[in-house]
Amino acid sequence: MEEIIHDQELESKEYFINMGPQHPSTHGVLRLVLSLDGEIIKKVEPHLGFIHRSIEKMCEHDSYTQIVHLTDRMDYLSCHINNEAVCLCVEQALQIEVPDRVKVIRTIIDELTRLSSHQLWWGVMGMDLGAITTFLYGFRDREMITDIFEETCGARLTMNYNVPGGLFFDIHPNFQKRTKDFLDYFKKKLPEYDTLLSDNVIFTQRMKGIGILSKEDAISYGVTGPTGRASGFSCDVRKHHSYMAYDRVDFKEILDTEGDCFARYKCRINEMWESMQIIEQLIDNIPEGDYKVPTKAVIKLPKGEWYQKVETARGEFGVYIISEGQKSPYRLKFRSPGFSNLSALDHMARGCKIADLVAIMSTLDLVIPDIDR
Amino acid sequence: MKSIINYFKEILFGLKSLVKGMAVTGHYITHPKEIITQQYPENRESLKMFERFRGEVVLLHDENNEHKCTGCTACEVACPNGSIEIIPKRVEIDGRKVKAIDQFVYHLQMCTMCGLCIPACPTDAIVMANTFEHAVFDRSKLTKILNKPGSKIMDGIK
Fold first, then answer.
1. Model confidence over A120-129: pLDDT tens digits?
2. How far apart (Å, rounded) are the C-alpha atoms in residues B85 and B79?
């Protein structure tokens, strides 16, 4: 009898806890079921479905102009890029060549969106690790970009500035001036990000060597975006399958080999510099011309299938349209970067502590509405 | 011996990095104007939204309480969420029965501010207003009737 009691005491029991769906560091309604041994994570099981809005099904009833605004609600931090993906796919199907002006404006706003997304990520990532100050600084700098969007696109977050064939309206006369002002301002502020977090000893010790994802694993899990590039997986759609005006600008694809949390952090910070460089090359050279190619009031795609991928702030975003020749698609599938990146979370978090899981999750930069759709 | 020196070096380096970070925070404590973006409820009087900002749909009326809406339902068709509902009626003008609007119902609670209804309107009757303080205590107040009572269509709009 004594032996049995003794055995049970020694046996460390595996137990489960729920992280989320209302946990502040999951950035939304993501439920993670953690299987723990003491503080060590044995297994992470993400449970989705709390913010499922059946956007893909809704798209089957909407016209092609109406679909565009639904993609705002998926990855709301890179909404302009999502809009663009749908528009590019429809333009590809209709064989429309958009004017140069549209290409350049779309590229500039893409990069501004990427910047604002990374700024927000930087702010909330600091907050996840316990530094509330960074949240305020990130949002302060993001405010200038949202002002640019508000003036030109008419909304701060869900902009809906793209229509199949071009843009909703031409850029605002102040657009170029504001963007240049922002670049001047942010070039001074970005080194401050490094001073605050990148050099901080507490921060680096919580990031370095945590959540390592090897290049082979990144490829087999389909991890894209800065998360994949930090593992050395060269997956930048802007470089490899260039769209819009990316083929005429000079920029580096940021690659790292370590694949830990700090590499992913560094990758995003360096991407902000690259984004600024892209905007700088284009902002003075916006060609004159139309901002829209006239399309029919009711767009009907021919029978067929099309796929278009773009690079959002989180990775490769794809739109796959199957058309039967009607005014709405027969089936529309989105390939969201967040979903594939989340699938690697279990692999990365095994053997880490619970506090490390928060760091890994925030460097993955998950947006839950994008995962769930 | 070397490991001890490294240990103290690391501590010193760590302390230095913390002080560097705190210097940034200290700078903003003494320069609060650089960190504040907007003091929203206080600057309510002077706050001016950008002209393209999409706040809510309004039906424009002129001083004679006349609007341009013909009741063609182009905006209703263009709306992805069913926020606009047009209830038509038949009115007699010069002995002919013409379609006109009875009620232009706008469900603000369903509107996503996508702005697709504005270019769809053939007579430019509706615009997006800059108002943004839409909070109310009862959701039934969000269903609005946009045409003012007693209003009628402008002459010459077809």
1. 999 888 888 8
2. 10
Question: What residues does each domain of chain A span?
Answer: 55-372
Taking only the tens place, the pLDDT of each residue in B75-108 is: 888 888 888 888 888 777 777 777 778 888 888 8
More confident residue, A11 or B138: B138
Chain B residues close to A73, C-beta within 8 Å = 112
Question: What would you measure as the largest C-alpha separation in chain B, in angstroms?
Answer: 107
| Mean confidence (pLDDT) of chain B | 84
Q: Which helix (H) or strand (E) holds A318?
A: strand A316-323
CB A113 within 8 A of CB A144: no
Please say if the pLDDT value at position B37 is more than 80.
Answer: no
The DSSP secondary-structure symbol of A292 reads B
Secondary structure (3-state) at A115: helix
State the CB neighbour count (10 A cutoff) for residue B129: 14
Interface of A with B in 159-198 (CB under 8 A): 160, 168-169, 172, 192, 195-197
The SS3 assignment for A353 reads: strand
Give the integer Cα–Cα distance in Å for A179 and A286.
13
Interface test with B, best of A60, A64, A65 (most B CBs within 10 A): A65
* pTM for the full predicted model: 0.88
- Which residue(s) pair with B129 in the sheet? B56
A44 and A63 in contact (C-beta within 8 Å)? no
Residues A309-326: pLDDT tens digits? Answer: 898 888 899 999 998 888
CATH homologous superfamily of domain A55-372? Cytochrome-c3 Hydrogenase, chain B (1.10.645.10)
Contact B52 A172 (CB under 8 A): yes
CB-based contact B37 A143, cutoff 8 Å: yes
Instruction: Give the whole-angstrom CA distance, residue A143 versus residue B34.
Output: 13
- Tally C-beta pairs within 8 A across A and B: 73
Give the model's confidence band at B137: pLDDT under 50 very low, under 70 low, under 90 confident, else very high. very high
